[in-house]
Amino acid sequence: METLAQLEALCERLYNSQDSVERAHAESTLKCFSSNADYISQCQYVLDNTSSPYALMLASSSLLKQVTEKNLPLQLRIDIRNYLINYLASRGPELEPFVLGSLIQLLCRLTKFGWLDDERFWEVVKEATNFLSQAQCHYAIGLRILNQLVSEINQHTIGLHATRHRRIASSFRDQSLFLIFQISLTSLFKLKADAGSKLQELSLMLSLSCLSFDFMGTAYDESSDEIGTVQVPLTWKPVLEDSSTLQIFFDYYTMNQPFSKEALECLVRLASSRRSLFSDDAARLKFLSHLMQGTKEILQTGIGLADHDNYHAFCRLLGRFKINYQLSELVNAEGYSDWIRFVAEFTLKSLQSWQWAGSSVYYLLNLWSKSATSVRYLKSDKPNLLEEYVPKIIECFVSSRFDSLQSELSDELGEDPLDNVEVLQDQLEFFPYLCRFQYESCSSYLMKIVEPIIQSYMKEANLPIPMNSYELSITETKLAWFTHIVAAILKTKQMSGFSGESHEVLDAEISACVLQLINITDSGVHNKRYGDVSKQRLDRAILTFLQHLRRCYIGDQAVFSSKLYTRLSELLGLHDHLLLMNVIVGKIATNLKYYTKCKEVIDHTLTLFLEMASGYMTGKLLLKLDTVKHVILNQNREQFPFLENWECFRSRTTLYYTIGMLVFMEDSQLKFKSSMEPFLQVFGRLNSTPDALFQSDAVKYAFIGLMRDLRGIAMATNSRRTYGFLFDWLYPAHMPILFKGLVHYADIPEVTTPLLKFVAELVLNKSQRLAFDSSSPNGILLFREVSKLIVAYGSRIISLPNKADMYASKYKGISICMIILVRALSGNFVNFGIFELYGDRALFDALDMTIKLMLSIPLGDIFAFRKIAASYFAFLETLFNGHLSFVLKLDKNALMLIVGSLELGIKDLSEKISSQCASAIDNFATFYFNHVTVGESVTSPVALSAVGLIAEFPELFSRILRTLFEVVVLEDRGNQWTLGRAILSMILISEEMFVNIKAQILASYPPDRHQRLSLCFDKLMQDVTLSLDPKNREKFSQNLTRFKSEFCAK
């Protein structure tokens, strides 16, 4: 590139061209500016001599990349910084906004990266302040510099170690942040008369940035309710206690400018200031009273609340009152009675305007619910007035939800909250606490409004044909909402201190309404409406209610309540938990019998059934019920028609997992065999099916269903005895059908996936269930069957042509094969040495085929599909742990690909994968150390292979060691202990490799840091001996922690 004009033309093409080829050519030509440090002076030349905004943008963005990614000498960085300050002062006002923003970001990035290196970088605040004393254009530049600086320091920058980032942020907080906040306040006071100006907006944004700073380094959203307070430093106390600070933000809000939302956001953060910041209770009460007065005036006038952003921020501000202050403080504050009245009126209007209010109203409900739950602790004599307003809010919430249903049902494009669990939980998160506050009046109100609806629904059930479907949908949706409210109220009993006999009686009364509803939903014409969406929503609401009722009053965690059952006995004749369980199981059985296509209801029903079977007490109680006995003995399509629905095939596993748990709970082999009779019939039909007909749809679906069902049964075996029941039943009589299925369906993932998942469950040694007798060959026999299945599947799938969806057609099955082998190899139910001893190829064939399958997946695809990556690296860890001799016998290309993938895996963001790779490397290096480094003589073929591998590919293992160092030093990982084990073993097998890595790492840092960093490396090996015993490893781990801390320090 010979002239500046050519550069300007290229830059314009880079940023403006519509031709992707032309843009790519320009990017390639100009890449040198951002990648080569020698071009830094060229960037300065461009800044000095061009007027093209695109050329200026290239120079600025290139410098930004260089500063971020390269370790530039300190003096060069200071020179660039000084140049930028002068450049912004002289040419800043005439620059395009995007160029100005980029140059300011460059200045702030330089400042951040150099903050701990030289105190001259601290002067940027003073220099930005100089801009504020000049004309408006320079004033704006000064504010933009300070805004960007606070933002840059606060946000983590890629490439900057998290520990160093925190040290920079802490130093900046202590040295400059308060001064910047004071500058923002001074600007706000100074510019107050300059209505609507850009300077006002920049000043407000600066205040907001300062108040949003991550003061404690916890990297949370400080406006969230999870933390609740903003940890403002103590030095800020005089400014925050000064009433003019709060007032200036209220004043800017009442100006009703486009940036009034920012003023409210500042108030939200000020309202969240930590309680201990204030001098005493009087100062905190004064601050609270000011907040109350300011918000009361906004509530009185309604100014700005027509803007939805302002409305949402204002609701958040009101919500902060109870999060950060005690109810006693609110009640004792001046003007509380007027304030709470205005808040109540505002809440009622918001609930009535539910379409406008949206999710904002839940900040208000949070305020009321937290206030209501605090009344019991209130000792003040002053009236809190909650008893007056809470009932009105409850009634308004319920009536507004009911009123909104008609609009929601007519809006076909809108999403019903009853279909979205997350939205529903948001809507009902706080409301139940209000109900519990005045539970008697609230429950009376709820029953009063729902009883006529239930009566109407009962009459509709007795009609010969259904009435108007729209009206029926409205009725069922109202009942669903009521049921969800009752469920949420019961849920609060588990999560709060609301208890007592009176509450249990009221729980019984509102629960009786829903229990009564259960009979109606499945009677008369409703018995033929299981395909209607509104009925499905109602049944899902009933299931949610039954879940919470069970958790509160039935089961291992529930406390038996005589008052609840006494009242239920009076109302419905349910005098104990066994009768109540019978009602729940009856509903489960009805749903499973009549819902044939609605997967959501079926899955919800099965979840409830599984929860009940999982509890020790509830499981035992279930076995006493005739309905459950009938279910166990009649597992057929008449009892469970959904079993034949392809869309619900996944649900079969959950059903049989539950049935299996109940069967095994009785610990009877006779009852187990009796329950398996339906499966014997299926096996019999499959065995008698000739090969020519085996691939028909009927046989295929029967086989898939069988595999899913058996997987559920296998999941339920949690002891050695119950697993023995299943294994003896399955082997050897029924294993051939699995092999037959793989032979016929190897290319059909819909069949092979459930089959392989069943096998994966079968070899999972959870709870040590695969503990066969010492005289039993079952462990070996099981592994041989697994080996045959893997080889049969792999030999067929590996030769199939690639398809568009490689994950579904091949990768998923290969991934499950790796999981099967990982579980089998690490299950500790087979002595694998016996296979080689007796010339049995089962182990060799399984390993050989699985590795071939594994290597058939491109490395890029392995990392792209996270489930495959998880099984791939788990397999490698298992291989390197117990079968290293097999690995080292692989051909060099395959071995290099595997070891190279371990290097990439160490860098992976998943700590589990990173740890697995480090463990594999450590196992290899430990083997090398024990058999080569400190071995008397290298004679074994495996050790010789290891020696040859490192000798032939020294650069690969050198890269692995460097990668381990870089991950430990440059990243904050929770698995440093595992990574450290691999580092030590790699260092001990080759001191020369460690010396080279040390030199390479030092060369990547500026010369002025070499001496200190070299000393860090020396300390790393201090008191570490030539040994891999636990004591030496622990010493190295301690040294590594200190090394990381000192290496990242200034």
TrEMBL record:
<dbReference type="GO" id="GO:0005737">
    <property type="term" value="C:cytoplasm"/>
</dbReference>
<comment type="similarity">
    <text>Belongs to the exportin family.</text>
</comment>
<dbReference type="GO" id="GO:0005634">
    <property type="term" value="C:nucleus"/>
</dbReference>
<keyword id="KW-0963">Cytoplasm</keyword>
<dbReference type="InterPro" id="IPR044189">
    <property type="entry name" value="XPO4/7-like"/>
</dbReference>
<dbReference type="GO" id="GO:0006886">
    <property type="term" value="P:intracellular protein transport"/>
</dbReference>
<protein>
    <submittedName>
        <fullName>Armadillo/beta-catenin-like repeat protein</fullName>
    </submittedName>
</protein>
<dbReference type="Pfam" id="PF25795">
    <property type="entry name" value="TPR_XPO7"/>
</dbReference>
<dbReference type="Pfam" id="PF03810">
    <property type="entry name" value="IBN_N"/>
</dbReference>
<dbReference type="GO" id="GO:0005049">
    <property type="term" value="F:nuclear export signal receptor activity"/>
</dbReference>
<dbReference type="InterPro" id="IPR057947">
    <property type="entry name" value="TPR_XPO7/RBP17"/>
</dbReference>
<keyword id="KW-0813">Transport</keyword>
<dbReference type="InterPro" id="IPR016024">
    <property type="entry name" value="ARM-type_fold"/>
</dbReference>
<dbReference type="GO" id="GO:0031267">
    <property type="term" value="F:small GTPase binding"/>
</dbReference>
<dbReference type="InterPro" id="IPR001494">
    <property type="entry name" value="Importin-beta_N"/>
</dbReference>
<keyword id="KW-0539">Nucleus</keyword>
<feature type="domain" description="Importin N-terminal">
    <location>
        <begin position="26"/>
        <end position="90"/>
    </location>
</feature>
<dbReference type="InterPro" id="IPR011989">
    <property type="entry name" value="ARM-like"/>
</dbReference>
<keyword id="KW-0653">Protein transport</keyword>
